[in-house]
Structure formats: C-alpha cells, structure tokens
From TrEMBL:
One Pfam family matching this protein: YibE_F
Sequence segments annotated as region (Disordered): 1-109
Full protein name: YibE/F-like protein
Transmembrane feature ranges: 117-138, 252-269, 276-297, 303-321, 333-353, 373-391, 432-455, 475-496
Basic and acidic residues composition bias: residue spans: 46-55
Keyword field: Membrane, Transmembrane, Transmembrane helix
Compositional bias per record (Low complexity), positions renumbered to this chain: 74-84
Top-level taxon: Bacteria
Family matches, as InterPro entries: YibE_F
Length: 514
C-alpha cells in the first residue's frame, strides 16, 4: 500500500516542484514580484491497469526525462531545458525579460536626454560668443594689407625689415679682415669682418655673384662653402654688392624632412585618428595665422582675441580629433572653464605685478606697429594660448580615464568613480606642471644664464621683468591646469553615469557609452 504524498510546497520565490498524484496535466503559470513563467507539467505515467509506475526504474528514468524538470517558458518565448536528473533550472525573471526590451526608454532614457540637453545648453552660448568674437575682432583683408604695407614702408618687419628676401649659396668665406677693406687684415681677432662670396639663386639678378661682409663677433654666425643663405636686398642696383646683406640660413629642407617624419610617426601610431589629429593641427595653425595675427596687428584687444581663438580651436579640433559625443563635450567644457580661470588670473596678476610686456621682440614690434599696441595684453594672450595646448591634453585624458573606469565597472558609484579618476588625474597633473616649468625654463635659458652670471640673487632674478613674465605665465597656467582636473573629472563622472544609464539596457556591460 502506497502512502499518500504530501502536497508540494511553494517557496517565497514562487518556484514550484511538480510532483505527486496531484500534479496537473495542463500548464502551470507562476508569477510573483520576481518571477513570471509558464510551466508545462507532463502527466505522470500510468500503466494500462491504472496502477502507479513508481516502482519501475525504467519508467522512472523515462518520467525523469519527461516531467522531472518543469519546462519554463518565458515571455520572450524561450524554453528552458529539462535535466535528466530531475533538477529544475530557474525561470527567467520578469525584470530580465523587461530589461532587454527597454533600450533607454523610461526614466533612464529621459535622464540621458536631460544630460545631453544640459551639455548643449552650456556649449551653445560659448559657440555664439566665439562667432561674435570672430565677427567683431577679425579685420578685413584690406585692413590687414594696409597695416602690412605701412610696416614695410616704415621700419619694416623684424628680421628682414623692408628688404626683399633673396636666396643664395655661399661659394667662399675668407678669414677675418678689416670691415672697410676685405684685403686688409684685421688688427685684432673678433674686431673685423668676414668676406663671404654668394651666388644669388633668385631675386632681381639670379646667377649673379656678389661679395658681402658679415661681422666676425662671437655672436655672429659662421659660414662655410655650400651653405644655403637668405639675403636681404634693399633695392637699387641689383648687381651692387652693397645693396645685399646676409640675414639668415635657409632651413626649409631639414624642417620639411622633420615635419614628414613627425607626420609619419603620428599616422603609424594613430592611423585614422592620427590623420584627424594632423588635420586638427592644420586647423590650429590656420586659426593663428588667419585670425590671431591679423587681429593683433590691426589693434584688436589681445585677450578677447586669444579667448575667441581658443574657443574656436576647442570647438573644431576636439570633435575633429575625438568625434562628436558626450565625452568630447565634457572635455570641451572642462577646457573652456579652465581657460576662463586662466584668463582672469593672468589679467589680475599681470596688473598686480606691474608687468609691461616689454622685451626685445616686443619693443621691436612696437616700433613697427606703433604705440597703440597693447604689449601687456599681448603677454596675456600668449599665456592663454600657451596654456591651451596643455589643458587640451589634460582634460581629454581625464575624461577618457573616467569613461574607461566606468566601462570596466558600470556599477561603480559616483564617489568611487570620481575617486579613482582623481588618482589618475593627480599623477597626470603633477607631470604636466613639471612639464610647464621645464618648457618655460628651457625657452628662457639664455636669459637665466645671463642673470646668473651677473651675480644677481634669486629675488632679483625672479622679479626682473623678463623672468617675472615667465613666472606669471608658468604659475597661472599651472593653477588652471590643476583646477581642470577636478572640474573635468566631476563633469565626466556625472555625464558618463547619466548617459550610460540610458543606453546600458540591452547592451553588454563592456559597451561604451556615447
């Protein structure tokens, strides 16, 4: 006699075991707050005489294959497979089924849309300000041509003055001689001139050979046979050697080779993105050559010119190099915010330090363009544009670090994501500040050596006009650089979580947010 089996108990998770005589012959629907499924229970096998088949091992094995594990069918129509041993597999939950069809809708999609709208709302006014600056500060071509003509007819541009450049090749360079007569020996070394024979390659008399004198002072260049040189022709008789002066060497060929090597290295490493970076570099040079220099030459205020040019470079170069995305928009916002801080600090401390912007090149430029040139503003514009290159590097790298950290752990909390990215940013900013100091020290190395040999103390050295300009430039740029790390990091952490929440449903955890 077979004892009756106890009725099957249902767990709180609403999982069911189909067993006993009371097993239904139709589908069982299981539903609670976590599980939705349909269970098809096969009837227990009976012999023809109606007796139970529980004692037959063969029939038990067959029953295990048929009804040992309920076949769960989810809403998506996928069926679970039954195990041979009768163990049940979990029924797919309703949350999982619903999530795969979400695709960024609902609250998550609305959050991502709000963040994108907020990014656009912050960037659009910056773009409008750049357009207004371009319209109001850029001179007309006729205006710039008039200024250039005026400078050429007066004292001329630095280096060549009002002279016409002519290429040539050195055929012979004699020893020191008297500056008034190349045939007379100099009374003492370093006090005379060197007679240099040059064949003109172009200009008003190509192919003509002239003999010109160059100083033999310690700071003067030394010429050898075959050197390509640039001469300045003052006008007059093109065959008269006295109308020519050697002003520089020709450096076009080695610079072209170096530029080609640089482009090749960028393309080999960056491939298509490297090509985009080279195009972006051309855009940057175009902004400086076609907007910044003409605007400054025609008397526009240097600081607004620098800010407008920086905004234009950020708005064109970053999307061109890194694509149009929330990541790029975040890096652009961090860069622009830091540039604004650098501009304010530069204006403030240049005034407090009573910097004039005077220097050898600035004084010569003031003589060319007239007294209306704002030399202090020119110094501040240099600070802003010089800091942009380093800021670009830091903000883009910091934003990418946040995105990659979130991609590695999409479930990371905002505080954890911010803390991890800040650890990366601290290392980066420490190296970048050192880079700024070394770059400016390297540029001012002859000046620093001159002051050191003059026996002036560190206080006198650092507060001198030429050195103080570099100190203000370095420290202001470094403050903006330091500020850019937390600003960009918190922006990136907020944006990446909001944007990815709207796109993560239906994607793998490794998928990259826009």
């Amino acid at each position: 006699m077979t004892s009756p089996r106890p009725p099957a108990r249902r767990s709180r998770a609403a999982s069911a075991t189909v067993d006993g005589d009371d097993a239904p012959t139709g589908p069982i629907r299981i539903q609670d707050e976590e599980t939705v499924g349909t269970v098809d229970a096969a009837p227990r096998g009976r012999r023809a005489d109606g007796a139970r088949d529980g004692g037959d091992p063969g029939i038990q094995r067959q029953r295990g294959r048929q009804a040992g594990t309920p076949r769960a069918t989810s809403r998506s129509g996928q069926s679970g497979q039954s195990g041979r041993s009768g163990r049940r597999r979990p029924v797919e939950s309703a949350g999982q089924c619903h999530g795969h069809g979400h695709e960024g809708g609902g609250l998550e999609g609305a959050s991502a849309r709000r963040v994108r709208v907020l990014l656009a709302a912050l960037l659009v006014p910056c773009a409008l300000a750049v357009l207004v600056g371009l319209v109001t500060l850029a001179p007309s071509p006729g205006e710039y041509a008039a200024v250039a003509q005026r400078a050429a007819s007066g004292q001329g541009a630095p280096g060549l003055g009002s002279q016409t450049p002519v290429d040539g090749e050195v055929l012979r360079a004699s020893g020191e001689s008297d500056c008034t007569d190349p045939n007379l020996p100099s009374p003492a070394p370093g006090e005379g001139c060197v007679a240099v024979t040059v064949r003109l390659a172009d200009g008003p008399a190509p192919g003509t050979t002239i003999l010109t004198l160059v100083p033999a002072t310690p700071g003067s260049p030394r010429f050898a046979v075959g050197d390509p040189v640039v001469l300045g022709w003052a006008g007059g008789d093109p065959t008269d050697p006295l109308t020519y002066t050697i002003v520089d060497f020709q450096r076009g060929s080695p610079l072209l080779v170096l530029g080609a090597a640089f482009a090749l290295a960028v393309l080999l490493l960056g491939r298509w993105q490297g090509l985009a970076a080279l195009v972006a570099l051309g855009v940057t040079l175009g902004v400086i050559g076609l907007f910044v220099l003409p605007a400054l030459a025609t008397g526009s205020s240097p600081v607004p010119v620098a800010l407008t040019a920086s905004g234009l470079i950020v708005g064109v170069v970053l999307p061109l190099t890194h694509g149009v995305s929330a990541r790029t928009a975040t890096a652009a916002l961090g860069t622009l915010a830091s540039l604004g801080l650098i501009g304010v600090l530069a204006v403030l401390f240049a005034a407090l330090s009573r910097l004039t912007g005077l220097g050898e090149e600035a004084s010569e430029l003031a003589g060319v363009l007239g007294p209306g040139l704002d030399l202090r503003g020119l110094l501040l514009a240099g600070v802003i544009i010089g800091a942009l290159g380093v800021l670009d590097d830091v903000t883009v790298t910091q934003t990418s670090a946040v995105w990659e950290l979130h991609r590695a752990d999409p479930a990371a909390r905002l505080n954890d994501l911010y803390g991890s990215a800040m650890r990366v940013g601290r290392d980066h900013v420490a190296s970048a500040v050192n880079t700024l100091v070394l770059a400016y020290a390297g540029a001012a190395l002859p000046l620093l050596l001159l002051f050191a040999l003059a026996g002036r103390g560190p206080g006198d050295l650092l507060t001198a006009e030429d050195v103080a300009q570099e100190v203000v430039r370095t420290l202001v740029g470094s403050i903006g650089l330091v500020a850019s790390v937390p600003v960009t990091t918190v922006l990136a952490a907020v944006v990446v979580r909001a944007v990815s929440s709207g796109t993560s449903a239906g994607t793998s955890p490794r998928s990259e947010p826009a």
